[in-house]
Design a protein that fits this description.
With 288 residues, the chain is mostly helical. The chain has a single domain, classed as Orthogonal Bundle (MetI-like fold). The protein has 12 helices and 2 strands. The chain has a two-stranded antiparallel sheet with strand order 1-2. Strand 1 and strand 2 form a beta hairpin. Its main location: membrane.
């Protein structure tokens, strides 16, 4: 008996989606469920997990308030600085750059990703360290300038490390912009600044929101940049998790912080999608 078309389509869909769904279930859903279970447990005397059911780990979250505060303050600020640097660059690439050289310029934006973030961050450690910029400043009479192990150094590393992730979504939005709208605005007597704020910026907001959401979500779990450029003095949630799981071996408390971080990321994503939906008038799947 021949197979019904609907059944055949369902089988094809299951065959295509099944491997990805299985991968996500095993490596994303199950670990998260394990973290949730651990978060209600207690720390074993030798470290690790002791089965229990208690909310003590969540009640103890204020003990890591500094890590939460630094993350929730510096991550949005870092995303905003990335946006301020990325938007002019993306605008130039999409609107002003010569089409003959556009592909090469876009490639230059991606080139830093070919090098490990660890290596690039170590380079900034040298530049901001005592033998880098502070040493040059001391030669011209500006003494005792400390740039490394400060929030400013962390923000600089964030902008440098995550800038391409902000540029590309904005560039895609601007590159798809209908140039006839800009010409129509100019024909109606609008000045370039008015055209930008009334036409270009609103139409590129989906790309802006995608870039901001992407960078902010990744920064909420950042570990490497605060560790190297902050010198342990600028503590992010990622640093707290490494300390709790590897040093203190307090798995339940670390799991409670990790679950809270996941909830914060989901909240940020929902807010970003809501804002994108309101400013564009339709839901933006780019943010998912």
């Amino acid at each position: 008996m021949p197979m019904a078309p609907k059944t055949k389509r369902n089988l094809v869909t299951a065959a295509l989606v099944g491997p990805s769904a299985l991968w996500l279930f095993v490596f994303l859903v199950l670990p998260f469920v394990a973290m949730v279970i651990f978060s209600f447990g207690e720390r074993a005397p030798e470290g690790g997990y002791l089965p229990a059911f208690t909310f003590a780990q969540y009640a103890n979250l204020p003990a890591r308030a500094a890590a939460f505060w630094n993350t929730l303050m510096l991550a949005p600020v870092g995303a905003l600085l990335c946006l301020l640097v990325a938007y002019p660059a993306a605008y130039y690439l999409a609107v002003k750059a010569d089409p003959r050289y556009r592909l090469m310029l876009v490639s230059l934006v991606v080139v830093p990703f070919w090098t490990s973030l660890l290596v690039r961050t170590y380079a900034w450690m040298y530049i901001l360290g005592s033998r880098g910029i502070p040493n040059l400043l001391s030669m011209i009479g500006i003494e005792d300038v400390r740039m490394l192990n400060t929030p400013g150094a962390v923000l600089l590393g964030i902008v440098y490390g995550y800038l391409p992730l902000m540029i590309m979504p904005i560039y895609v939005s601007l590159e798809k912009l209908d140039r006839r709208l800009l010409e129509a605005s100019a024909d109606l007597g609008a000045k370039p600044v008015s055209t930008f704020f009334s036409v270009t910026l609103p139409l590129s907001l989906p790309g802006v929101m995608t870039g901001v959401a992407l960078v902010t979500i990744l920064l909420l779990g950042e570990y490497l940049i605060p560790q190297l450029l902050g010198g342990g003095k600028v503590f992010f949630i990622g640093n707290a998790l490494v300390d709790l799981f590897l040093q203190s071996r307090n798995w339940p408390f670390g799991s409670a912080i990790a679950v809270t971080l996941v909830l914060v990321v989901v909240l940020v994503l929902m807010v970003a999608m809501r804002i994108a939906w309101r400013v564009s008038g339709s839901r933006q799947v780019d943010l998912v």
